[in-house]
Structure formats: C-alpha cells, structure tokens
C-alpha cells in the first residue's frame, strides 16, 4: 500500500516536471518567434505582418521586399542562429566545468577567434569567408592549446579555467595592439570583433552558421542526458554509465565549433554564452535538461539586444555592448542570490 | 624519522635564505636598474651620439638628438615609478588575498579605474590630472571590493579560481560599459583606445608630478604593512591569535595597493601582469618574508618595466610597441606556469 502510493507520488511529480518543462520550452519558443516577428515588421518604418509573410513566401512586394527581405531578414536570421549557437556552446561548457562563470568568452575561446579575425582583416587585408575559416581554426587551436597546457596527470577543470583566463588576457592584448595600428578604413570592420554585432548581415553567412548549428548542436542535444549527468561530478557520472572523457571531448569539440563559427560571423557577442545557461537553469529548475532552453534564451538575448541597440536607445549600439552591459547586474544578482542561499558558486 | 619530519615542518616558516644572499641580490638588482636606466636613455628610434646624450643630461636641447634624449628622461622615470608601483601593488594583493594569482589586471582593478576615468571624461568633463587620479582611485577601490565580494562568496572563501573568474567576468562587463560609453563619441574614442593599451610613451614631467603624492602615500602604506602581511600569511586564525586585527590589516594594505595601481593606471593606462610576474620571481630570490619581498618587488618591477619599454622601442623600429603589450606577452605564459605549478583540486 505504502509503496504504491509512494510510486504514485513519484510518477505524479515526474509528470508535473515534464509538463512544466514542456511549458517552459514552449513559452520560450513563442517568445522567440514573437521577437523575430517584431524584428521583421517594426523598424524605422512599420511593415504590416501580411506584407512580411508575403515577402517570406517569396512574393515581390514594392518597398517591403527591400526592407524586410534585404535588410531585416538576414539580420534577424543571423541573430537567431548566432544566439542559439552561443547559448548552446556556453551552457555546455558551464555544465562540463561545473561553474557558471566558466563560459567560453571568459576562458579564451572567443578571444582566440577574435584575434585571428582582427589579424586577418587588419594585417592581411582579407575579407569574407576566409576570415571565418581562420577564426574557426584559431578558436579550435586555442581550445586545444588551453586543453594541452592544462594537461598534467589529467585535466582538472580548475586548471583549465585558469589557463584559459591567462591565454585570453594575452590574446586580448594582441587584439588591442592590432587595432591600435589599424588604418582608419579597416578600423570600423575590426571594431566589431571587439564587441560583436550583426550589422550588415548577409544571407549566405547564415547558411554556414546553420550548417554548423545543425551538426554540432544536433550532436550536443543528442547527448543531453550524458551531459546533464556531468553536473553530478565526474565520478558519479561514470557510476551512472557515462563515458566521461568521451563526453567531455564531444562537448569541447562541438561547443568550440559552435562558438567559433558564430564568433567568426558576428564577433564575440559579449556574455550571451555566459548568461544563457544560468538564466535557463533558473527558469527550468530541475524539470529537465537545460541545453535546449539555454539555446533559446541565447537567441532571445541576441535578437532582443540587437533590437534594443538599434531602436530603443538614444544612439545606436552594436548588440555586444547591450549584452555585455547586462553582465554587470547579473554578477551583482549572483552575489545577492548566493549570499542569501549560503551556497557556493 | 623524526629529523626528516622536523625538516619538512620547518621549511615553510624558515625559507633558509641567508641575509647575505639577500644583500647580494639587492646589489645586483640596484646595479641592473642603473644599467637599464642608462640603456633607456641611450636607446631609441633615433641613434644619438654619446656627446649629445651627455649634453642632454646636462639640460641642453639644441640638436634633435639632444631633444630626443631629453624626451627619454621623463619616460624612463615614469617607467621606473609605474613598474615599482604595480609590482608592489601585486605583491601586497597576493598577501592580502593569500592568493598566488592576484594581480591588478587579473582581478579587474585596472578595468575599474578605466571605467571610472572614461565616465569622468565623458559625463563630468574632468580635465585636471588630479581629478583623473581621484576618479581612478574611486573606480579601482569599487572594482576591488566588488571582485573580492563575488570571489569570496560561498564555500571555501576566496579561492584563486573564484577570484580569477570573478575578476575576468567583471573586466568583460566593465569593458563593454566602456565601449558603450565611448562608441557614440568619436571625438574621444581614439584617445581612450590608445590610453587603454597602457604605455609610458609621451611622458612629461608635468604629467608625472600629479601622481607623485599618491605614489608616495601608497609606497609608504604598502611597505609599512609588510609585518602585517607576514602575520596574515599564517592564516586568519593564527594572525588574530598573534594579536593582529585581521580586517584592519587587510584593509590598510589593500588601500596602499589600490592607491599605487590607481595612480599608475590614471597616468599610463592599464598595464597588466607586472604585479603577477615580479613578486613570484622575487619570492624565488629572497624568500617569502614580506619585509624583503615588498621592496624587492618594487625594484624588480621598475627593472622589468624599463626593460619592456626599451625592448618595445627596439623590436618594432621605427614604430614602438607599448609596454602594456609586452608585459601581457611575458606575463600570460608566466601566469600559466604558476597555474600549472599549483596543486589544483579537481572540481
């Protein structure tokens, strides 16, 4: 009798959690679609939703075809994909290293990609896809270097984070130096690699990013259960049957791929990777895996931040400035929350 | 069995570095500093004849060579002061936080000074050098308290990892705010960007003199806190058992360090990693006694920054490499080395 009622309670609570999870993910998806729709239809001028839909269907609508099809759609699409990539890559790192502060933009991967991109643009005067290729390979190279440098009788997460911070500081000073030497005409282009922006987006940029997202993101999401198990600690995860080092390798390669591809196109949009995971964790609670909600929140942050930076503030800011400025209040919030709960970071 | 155990127990408190060794190192460092100062005055983009250098040192500026040398003198002085101040500040911070990775750059203190200065320039129209320094001090102090609070949250207090992460995250947030403030104002963007790299080029005596009183107080407070730092190194409980008021000791020493790095940052811009590298090297040379370590760090820092400045003038001729870049290129690998040497626990 007792056992069956306990079982019922367990089943009921599991069902409740599943319901909450579906609800949360659904709500986030709706919010994302809403912001996407607003980005497409409301800018300096208003385009009626009917016209937006007709443009998306491929019809030629005088006026709207240009504003929506040429200006707003590539930008919104790029923001969406980059946000998904940053959110997913960031949360994977945070789970793996079990520290909300250990996101790729802090441990050097974004700065590796930025340094390569700035070098390619300013010193080698390159343009277009080759810059992305260089940035992605540099991001992967830096990740490997950080991993290798922190290898000593195995890789301790602590050492990996600290080495990453060191590497990142060095690369940032290289970026600052290259920018200080830049001629005025390439400075604007290069400045984007300091803050991150979706200005001047092209549809073909989104295509590469979409492929990367499909491959790397798909692999990460298919391993969501194993990745979530890493939260419990490596030993516990291994006891649950997770192949820890294999999962870790998959996380590093795919998350770096996501972050580097997105960074190569938009520049390091500050703190999206850093903020998405903790926000998602807060909303989802213990109701389910945090990967997918974190990706959705990343996209909400980038699209919302870009919209705010373009239209809601006194002067126009790139999206990276908006999301970066969100980081300071988040850190303060972290202090208040942790000191109230008496927990640990 | 017993003697061996005694030895391992005794080692941390008795570093076993004789006073004579320390005195020898002191002389070596002083000699090195003199040589580097001489090099800094003689070497530059322009080759100057020896006679002109002597004439310039006597105050003549008739030829171009003499004028060039006359420009190098305040620059050398600034590098000396900034190097000494930043290294001393780093050594004090490592003592205060009992953290081998403490450095004004890593902990975000320099970025706090940058943000405050930028806010002051853009919104409050500060122009005087004193206002610059006061703003920088306010920003550094706020950033230091902020980062230390975040870093010491939760279990285990202020571990190296948490402090470094809190510093890095705060730096990113602050630098976004700096960009957000500067971006719409192209008139000041260029000046602020070059200030942000950190350099001693273009120094004049007029620019140096306002920072002197702050540095003087900072040096005095920091050097006088050596004994307190020695007690703090034993751990808070033992230190308070020895009659040290731990919180007061921490606050005074930190105040000295903040004065030093804020005044330096206000004049030179943020120069990173110096405060990390120099105290570690000095600890290898003269041991862990802060009464020796602090003055040695100051001297060593002066040597390193002057050397970095001279190297920066040579490698990129005829252009110059700012010292902020060189210290980062030397310092970051060093930081990684320190991290690798540490026994870190698995997360």
From TrEMBL, chain B:
It is found in: Cell membrane. InterPro entries: ABC_BtuC-like, ABC_transptr_permease_BtuC. One of its GO terms (molecular function) is transmembrane transporter activity. The chain crosses the membrane at residues 75-93, 105-124, 130-151, 163-183, 208-226, 247-272, 292-311, 323-340. One of its GO terms (biological process) is siderophore-iron import into cell. GO terms for cellular component: plasma membrane. The keyword Transmembrane applies. The keyword Transmembrane helix applies. Belongs to the binding-protein-dependent transport system permease family. FecCD subfamily. This is Iron ABC transporter permease. The lineage of its organism: Bacteria, Pseudomonadati, Pseudomonadota, Alphaproteobacteria, Hyphomicrobiales.
